[in-house]
Amino acid sequence: MTATYTVVQTDMKTGTVVRPLPITGLSFTHTLNDTGAATIGIPLFAPEADPESLVPGVSGLVVLRDGAPVWGGILWTLSADIAAGTLTLNASGFHSHYKARHFVAGWTARSIEQATILKDWFTYCNTNNGIGTDASGLKPTGHKRTRLWTRYELKNVAEAIEELADNIGGFNFRYETYWKTAGKQIGNRFVIADRAGVPTSHQLTHRANCNVTRVSYDSTALTTTAYAVGADPGNGGKLVAGKVNRALAERMPDRLTVSTYSDVKETQTLFDKASATINAGAVPVAIPELTLYPGQFSPTEFIPGEYAAINVDAGYVALYDEFVVTECATAVDANGTESISLALASKDVFNNANPS
Description:
Elements lengths: L4 E7 L5 E5 L3 E7 L5 E7 L15 E7 L2 E14 L4 E8 L1 H4 L8 E7 H14 L16 E6 L7 H9 L5 E11 L3 E10 L3 E8 L4 E9 L6 E5 L10 E5 L1 H4 L6 E5 L6 H14 L4 E8 L13 E9 L2 E16 L5 E9 H6 L4
Parallel strand pairs: 12-18, 14-16
Antiparallel strand pairs: 1-2, 1-5, 3-4, 3-19, 4-7, 5-6, 6-7, 8-9, 10-11, 13-17, 14-15, 17-20, 18-19, 19-20
C-alpha cells in the first residue's frame, strides 16, 4: 500500500500546528549527527502560501507519513518560480536552531556525567527563548566530562554538542519529532545512542530488496599518529596530546593528523580527541549507497546510527558485513511515489571510535 504524505506548518516556539500545506512534491534527509534537510514544493498561488504567516526563520515544517511525524525542522529559505507557479521551501532539522545559540555567560562543568551536561544545555536554551527541545529522557552514560568556556568565547551550542559526541565514550545523536497533542502540537526530542551503532534485523541484498548503486573506498582518514592541540594554558604555548597506532604504522608509512581544539583547556580531553582520531582512522572506509525497493520499507526503519547487514557480489565489490546508516533520504513525487535511499559506512569505523 502506498504511504500518504502530508506537510504541516508549525509555530517554532510552541510547536502548535498552524495549517496543513498543499504539496507538489517533497524530499527529506536524516543525517547522522547533523541537521538533515527537507525541500517541499507548494503551489505559489495557494491561499496557504501566505507571506504574513509562512516566514523563513520563524515557521516550522513537519513531514507526516500516514499521519505520523517522520521529519521536522525550521524553514530557513524559500524561492518562488513565478513562471512555473511553484514555491520551494527549504528547511533544516532542529539542530540548526542550536547553530545560532551561544553560551553568552560562558559555561563551567567539571567532571559531570555527559547526559547531565546535555540536559543542562537544553534547559538553558529552552529557558531563553528556545524551541522546547525535550532532553528529559537522556540516561546516564557512565562518562564524565569537563567543559570550561568564558563569556568572552561565546561558545556555540551545536558545536559543543557535536564535540561532546565526538569522543571516546561519546554518542550518536538525533532529534525525534513527535505529536505532543495529536493533530495539534508537535514536539522535538533529543535522543542519543551508542556511538558504535544500534543493531537492526534488516538484511539488504543487492538485486533482492535493494539496488546498490555505488560503493566508494576511502583511506583519507587513515592515521598512524594523531595530535590534538588545545588552548594556551597561560604560558604562551599550547596544550598538546598525542596517540600512536603502532600496528597500522607497521603496515604503512607514517600518516599524521593534527586537529586543533582552541577552546579545550583539559589535557585529558585532548587525549580523548586524539584517541578518537586514531581509532576512527584505523581502517579504510567502505561507503555503499543504495536505493530500497519500493513498498518494502518505511524511512523510519533506517535511522542514522543504526546498522544493517549488506550483501553485494559485483566484481571488485564483495561486501558481506554490517554497515551503519549515515544518511536516509526520502523523495516523494507529485504522484505520491516514495523513493528511499541510504548512505552507509563500515561498522568497523564506529566500533573503532569506542574503547576496546
